[in-house]
Write a structure and sequence with these properties.
The structure is a homotrimer. The first copy, chain A, has helices spanning 4-11, 18-23, 169-176, 182-185, 203-206, 323-328, 337-346, 364-381, and strands spanning 28-32, 44-48, 51-57, 63-67, 81-83, 86-88, 95-96, 102-104, 125-128, 131-134, 158-165, 211-216, 220-228, 233-242, 246-252, 258-269, 272-281, 400-404. By secondary structure, chain A is an alpha+beta fold. The first copy, chain A, is 15% helix and 25% strand. Chains in contact: A-B, A-C, B-C.
């Protein structure tokens, strides 16, 4: 459990809050690159850390990210015109470039040079991994660009999607770094079904309740869920938590191709999260169009409106829960592994009251993440650099296997040939 | 009128409020038995006195009523699995029996026996009259089971329904114990109509404005509206108010069968009420399928969604008010006697500001109910037992008749052959 | 900019607020006369300055405007019966005349004469210009009836409409007295389009950014936007601001008939405004049915639901913004000049934070209006009579023309043959 005070401390992310200031030290996923498909295309609304912003791709293919509201009279730049290297407010024709400079003003005589006195909030952006990232913190603290194994993968081999979760960001993260729920919530009741999930004959399901092994690192932590299978074998599944909201986990396509996958739980505001989902092929084979539908996860274009990024299975329709399917085919009666996650996490309310929890040993990774986040808040408050700012995480992978009881899980969480890092 | 303070005192029912604590001394209707049709059927959400709960019928046909949120990480048990005498949370597989004990845990090694340290909130239930009742108060104060004439009637002779009213509970009750509005709000303008209501030739309508006679009793009060018809006759209609929210009144089916009927205005929360409606045949004849449609009241399956229990005529559509019908056929232009009640009571806002009322002699029963409710709050605060806890009300009936001017209305409010009770 | 305190002072209009008390010194448009088409027709809900009211046309064709809530038990008179010179509550049959007197009571014996002790809130009304106006201030301060040039025009020559804007009233007014935005926001990109707006060859558009000339008057102010066209000519467009929320401007029908037009931004409550739109022919020719559709403005029955007065183009559908049209035909991609105004003003949020503005010389009229409104609040607080109470504005007109550089714009803002008033 957390005290109500610490719960508020970790979950509130608006500008000026301790966690909000901490978040703003990291590069933030702001939108998918494909939402701005070409230079001078229509601008897009972005809500990030409780701030209303407008993203636009300018004539030179650079992405600008401005305060939504024109500094003149506070009209929304969403209605603006994306013109020749700038976004122009339609109310009085003030035009801003991607640095926030006012470069033209239609309603004032040009000889007044009034435009030179005006600027708006603009955040630096960069694009890697099919994602536009923004830096919203103090300029002098600007971090190195994000650099993950998945952002280095060629576009042919990776898919990235996003979907809104109607909870605080931490609720999503805590589901994602909790191996203990996965073979329960996502379990199938029979091998005789085509629904997504873990079948009864999967060692992930067959294993007993896990013990957790965890190494704190300079980027966050790595950990493994270790499930006894029998006298000689264990099932091991390794994960990484990279501060402040990245998960890396092993996965597998429907056709059996081994994948590395992960999520980012990016705060829209205190009660909404944009969940980014990525996964890439670890073989020479590229991802197929079918792979990009993410049917088994429920994150793709069949399951999520690609304009609003709202899930078709949502609280308003009880996630299309089918009680008969729940009796006979899947543990939840809800289709889609991540739809199941959203259903259960949204059911806890927008910000779960962690002072009323009862955590056990299986929640060790969740508890450790909270400790690291509280530490980061203190570090930032004290003027320091929190974990995960430096891209020491750039080569991390994750894996899952049945291994002898005495196998070293740590080797599985590193790229082939790597040295095991010194753990903190 | 009531002071704003007393208005708040009587209308707020969350745990820890004075009225909330008083309500919790009585058995509360929680849901209809038929909402849980068979053992191990899907669980149902129940919101009662501002508490979010989950009801389930276990393998042994007993009804459990648990805190909606699993004590582990606060996921909703609505998504739970109703399995072998317990409800299992799908997030981590914690299972609770109807006493709230944790009887299994899938995510922790069983040798830890961590489950023995965990329990959740569970309220005792019982089923009578086709209703599941819950006791949410201090265990040492648990009241005798509810026992009404209507809960003793065979199922063939009674119908019970429910519908959400979008107001505080007291607003509903105050309509139900106010005989003065009935032949006005529910009046028809012509005998030449098939719409429900009281026709102009009905003595209830023909009578002059009523005087009210009222006896306070150990369960609440009984009262009569007495309407002069002519030199020799009066129209009398008797009612009972049983603490804290029960009404008993005379009624009559569309085909003319005499009925006894009533309502319970059960607080969902401070601004929503679940109105339970019951009526039973006082003859040997059972109720027909047609009777169970409650067409004249607007409470049955033709008028109320049987999953959400929201009325089809509601504030959003102005209760399908027809101004032409209002000109020529019925006083309101709205069909359904209780639909008319909900329309007018919801029009007062979710919690009417009783400090702005202007009450007259005809509001005497309303005023007396408030006095008894305030008395009950004081009694409970002082550690005592409020009126209506003991089932002294078990045989009460109500009646309506045209009688000589000097007839004794009190006899009409008792079962045939009963003694008139001593009134307080 | 305004301080947050002054912003709140000018935008809050509930009873008892300084601006609310100031507004209540003026006659307020309450509804269109045609919403109450005949004696004893159905009553209509009116929300005005945050007060919930019911309007009804009585048997003698007079309009009553009562507190929505019956003083008895606070049921809504919306459901009431409009009967023989009074509105009767359907709950207990209390009937009120248009002065608020209780003239009948069905639920109390008439011999008690209880009705004589009861009255409800009633506001005086009058009808001019196709509008029902209400006076909601202190009776001893009741102002002279509204008397505008447009309220004197025969019905054949004028059209009046209304539409809800989802912002505070001041946001609407500030758009209406801001000439600087008009040829920008409402601009067309090509002469080759049938969409509404100002075409590139219009001198209003061809002119350079305007300078503003402004005379404060006893009714508010008059002002002109003066746009240089070339060495010898200027484009002049004159406006009037009549306290507290009237605009008069020049206009022109689609077929080229010269019109005088205007708006009134009447507060529904702090976050909603009823915008009244009027325009009349200044020639002998009456308006046509086509003119009354107000296609170019987006205010007529094709664009606004005539029961709810909600615009079909609204925030929920991004005003049906067409990005392709925005690229090639119109500055906004939204059809309807006033739909464009509502889009941009609603985009600022319900009450724009004026402490974050950056105003320039082109905002001079906006700044001056705020000064006059703050002055009016002080005047009323000090017991005085604010500007615009006396109908000194009765003959004002507005005009637009290309004139020589040294022409006097003041003559254009007066009826032909008038003397130029002394300006304050």
């Amino acid at each position: 459990m957390l005290s109500r005070e610490d719960n508020a401390l970790l979950t509130r992310v608006e500008r000026g809050t301790p966690m909000g200031d901490t978040m703003r030290r990291y590069w933030m996923p702001a939108l998918l690159s494909r939402e701005l498909p070409e230079p001078d295309c229509p601008p897009v609304r972005v809500r990030l850390l409780g701030e209303d912003l407008i993203a636009f791709r300018d004539t030179q293919n650079r992405v600008g990210l401005l305060d939504e509201y024109c500094p003149h009279r506070r009209a929304s730049l969403y209605f603006g015109r994306n013109e020749e290297c700038g976004l122009r407010c339609v109310y009085h024709g003030w035009k801003f470039d991607l640095d926030g400079r006012c470069v033209d003003m239609m309603n004032e005589p040009s000889e007044l040079q009034f435009k030179d006195k005006v600027a708006t909030v603009a955040y630096p952006t960069l694009e890697v991994g099919g994602v536009v990232w923004a830096y919203m913190g103090p300029p002098e603290r600007k971090a190195a660009p994000p650099d993950f194994a998945w952002t280095r993968v060629p576009a042919t081999h990776i898919t990235v999607s996003k979907v809104i979760q109607e909870t605080n960001w931490l609720q999503g993260l805590e589901g994602g770094i909790d191996t203990s729920h996965a073979p329960i919530l996502h379990r199938l009741l029979t091998t005789n079904t085509s629904r997504p999930g873990f079948k009864p004959d999967n060692p992930f399901v067959r294993g007993k309740a896990p013990t957790l092994a965890l190494d704190v690192t300079d980027y966050g932590y790595r950990y493994a869920g270790i499930r006894p299978l029998n006298e000689t074998s264990i099932h091991v599944r390794t994960y990484h938590f990279i501060m402040p909201f990245h998960q890396i986990r092993p996965s597998r396509s429907e056709s059996g191709v081994p994948l590395v996958a992960g999520h980012m739980w990016v705060p829209i505001d205190d009660e909404h999260t944009m969940v980014y989902n990525w996964e890439y092929s670890t073989t020479d084979a590229p991802l197929t169009d079918e792979d990009r539908l993410e049917r088994r996860l429920g994150n793709g274009p069949l399951d999520v409106d690609q304009t609003t990024f709202r899930a078709k299975r949502n609280r308003g329709n009880n996630y299309l829960l089918d009680r008969q399917v729940q009796k006979t085919e899947s543990f939840t009666g809800i289709d889609g592994i991540n739809a199941q996650d959203r259903a259960i996490q949204e059911s806890m309310g927008p910000v779960v009251d962690r002072s009323r929890e009862h955590l056990g040993p299986a929640d060790r990774a969740v508890i450790q993440a909270r400790r690291l986040l509280l530490e980061a808040v203190r570090t930032v408050t004290d003027g320091g650099v929190p974990r995960g700012i430096e891209p020491t995480y750039a080569k991390l992978v994750a894996a899952e296997a049945v291994v002898p009881r005495d196998a070293d899980w740590r080797e599985m969480s590193l790229p082939a040939g790597s040295q095991i890092e010194q753990t903190v």
